[in-house]
């Protein structure tokens, strides 16, 4: 037999019922009124167990409603949140069912909303979004439903914006290497080959001769310094090989070495 020593207000609509053993029960206002819990009241083990069960469901439901108030959630996110908050397993399922009845939880609607949001606010392609939705516990059917709202023209537009941003990042590379890195970047973002080709075709990137000369000089000088301990022939071969691997034009590479020879003669 336990005695209620005090009842205090907790966060939100919750209360803490303190027992003579030192244990405290977190209950909702509804449970407090329904069970007619008062300071000094004696509780049997059976009554305490009933309060715990009632409190688990009520608290879990309120926690879920609060969690949903910020944004839509998937079923898995709700279940994970309730598990983290130590809500009883059987109550988690009941709460999810109740939220579905209230039309507050629907993975199909969640998928659609998630895809629409990311296509407006991020540079992610369908494949990456699909992976994220899988991690949120959505079925393949619900995922594909959401992805139908990410039309081809929208994908090309998002991919083109991502490509322009990436191209600026690689401006110190050779034009061909930069273009290759942009393509790889877009693939990693989750776009397919067709979308990538259309995006790059629309942007029509062009090689900037001055920028290319500046890039090879910067890269070449860095390599020249890196291999300074080698004999002149091996040093030249190492630098040439690296510049070819970085996809600089052979004529530009030769021009770089011609200028290097002139520097050495001075």
From TrEMBL:
Residues 62-99 form the RecX first three-helical domain. Keywords: Cytoplasm. One of its GO terms (cellular component) is cytoplasm. Residues 106-146 form the RecX second three-helical domain. The keyword Transmembrane helix does not apply. It comes from the Bacteria. It holds the Pfam family RecX_HTH3. It is found in: Cytoplasm. One of its GO terms (biological process) is regulation of DNA repair. Residues 153-200, 210-256 form the RecX third three-helical domain. NCBIfam families: PRK14135.1 (NF010733). Belongs to the RecX family. Modulates RecA activity. This is Regulatory protein RecX. It comes from Candidatus Enterococcus dunnyi. The gene is recX.
């Amino acid at each position: 037999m336990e005695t209620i020593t005090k009842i205090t207000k907790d966060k939100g609509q919750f209360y803490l019922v303190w027992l003579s053993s030192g244990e405290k029960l977190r209950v909702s206002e509804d449970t407090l009124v329904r069970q007619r819990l008062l300071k000094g009241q004696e509780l049997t083990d059976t009554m305490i167990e009933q309060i715990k069960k009632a409190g688990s469901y009520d608290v879990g439901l309120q926690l879920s409603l609060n969690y949903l108030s910020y944004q839509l959630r998937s079923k898995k996110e709700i279940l994970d949140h309730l598990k983290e908050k130590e809500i009883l397993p059987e109550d988690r399922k009941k709460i999810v069912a109740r939220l579905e009845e209230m039309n507050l939880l629907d993975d199909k609607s969640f998928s659609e909303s998630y895809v629409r949001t990311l296509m407006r606010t991020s540079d992610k392609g369908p494949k990456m979004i699909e992976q994220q939705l899988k991690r949120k516990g959505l079925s393949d059917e619900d995922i594909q439903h959401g992805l139908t709202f990410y039309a081809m023209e929208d994908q090309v537009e998002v991919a083109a914006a991502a490509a322009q941003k990436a191209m600026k990042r690689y401006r110190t590379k050779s034009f061909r290497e930069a273009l290759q890195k942009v393509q790889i970047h877009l693939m990693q973002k989750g776009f397919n080959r067709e979308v990538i080709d259309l995006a790059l075709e629309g942007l029509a990137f062009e090689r900037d001769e001055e920028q290319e000369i500046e890039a090879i000089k910067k890269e070449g000088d860095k390599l020249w310094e890196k291999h300074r301990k080698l004999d002149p022939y091996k040093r030249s071969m190492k630098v040439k090989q690296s510049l070819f691997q970085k996809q600089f034009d052979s004529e530009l590479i030769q021009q770089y070495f011609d200028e290097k020879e002139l520097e050495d003669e001075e």
